[in-house]
Amino acid sequence: MNWIRLLWADSFRTILSITCMSKLKKPLIICLWLAFWQITAVLVHNSIMLVGPFEALRALWALLPSADFWRSVTGSFGRISTGFLAAFMAGVLLGSLAYTAPLLEETLEPLMLFLKAVPVASFVILALIWAGSRNLSVVISFLVVLPVVYVNTMAGLKSTDKKLLEMAAVFRMPLWRKIRFIYLPALVPHLVSGCRIALGMSWKSGAAAEVIGLPEHSIGEHLYMAKIYLETADLFAWTLVIILVSAVFEQMVLFLISRLCPQKGEVAHETTDP
Fold first, then answer.
1. What gap in Å lies between CA 129 and CA 23, rounded to an integer?
2. Both ends of the chain: CA-CA distance in Å?
3. Which of 88-97, 164-173, 189-198 has the lowest mean pLDDT?
4. 107 near 173, Cβ under 8 Å?
5. Residue 222 pLDDT level (bands cut at 50, 70, 90)
6. Residue in 59, 177, 195, 204 with CA at minimum distance from that of residue 121
């Protein structure tokens, strides 16, 4: 019996160590890259070419008390998130309509291919003429996100289980229940995947548009000024702001999608109700 207890104790310790290592793996990898960044900055030894993470964090800390900092962050967040949300709703709507109307799908396909193929720089120049610098990031974010959401919406709807649709037709399930318990569970994973891609693209393209358009009280304006005055620490600080804000926004969007849409586990029970 003693050897059985020892075996169980060894197994428990092994499982516990593996669990702890899996939880610490990501922070350790991040620390490794931060250490590589710091060592590289020390070796370069040129604050104009490259600064380390401590210098970037120090510059960010110096920016935090400024009212202009928060005005710029909220301004850029409002414009880029507006473009993303408008494109998300338009992409889901157009994708849903195209799924039900093949002629509309064929009509929209060249437009979506065009939007995906045209370089962001070309869009920025054209949008600067059409919309002006103030709303430039809204337009660019919209144009970049729209085809991604549209394509993923179409893919999600086309992946719907045909047997469930046949069963719904046999039992004359109302349309709203088919949407909620059959279409949405198939659509959600594709929307989540598309949003992960589109969110990063919207923030990168939106910030680039602000650097070119230079609207007042924007992150792009501060990035441009940091480049002009060779303030590399501020450049990295504002880049960290973009990364943090986009990460928070991504988690908010994905949380809302997961809360508003039923998961596949809920469908089996709900679809059997009369």
1. 50
2. 55
3. 164-173
4. no
5. very high
6. 204
Residue 240, both tokens: 């960290």
Q: How many of the other CB atoms lie within 10 Å of CB of 158? A: 12
Phi, psi (rounded to 5 degrees) for 217 = 55, 60
Q: Which residues 6+ apart lie within 8 Å of 47 measured at CB?
A: 55, 232, 233
- Evaluate if residue 99 carries a pLDDT over 50: yes
152-153-158 Cα angle (round to 5): 95
Contact (CB, 8 A) for 208 and 136? no
Say how far apart CA 95 and CA 14 lie, in whole Å.
49
Residue 164 CB contacts under 8 Å (≥ 6 apart), including other chains: 182, 267, 271
Whole-structure pTM value: 0.82
| Amino acid making up residue 174 | P
Integer Cα distance of 171 and 252 in angstroms: 37
Question: For residue 1, what is the enclosing H or E element?
Answer: none
Say if CB 187 and CB 267 are below 8 A apart.
no
What does the alpha-carbon distance between residue 244 and residue 250 come to, in Å, rounded to a whole number? 10
Return d(Cα 88, Cα 97) in angstroms, integer: 14
230 Rama sector, left if φ>0, alpha if ψ -120 to 50, beta otherwise = left
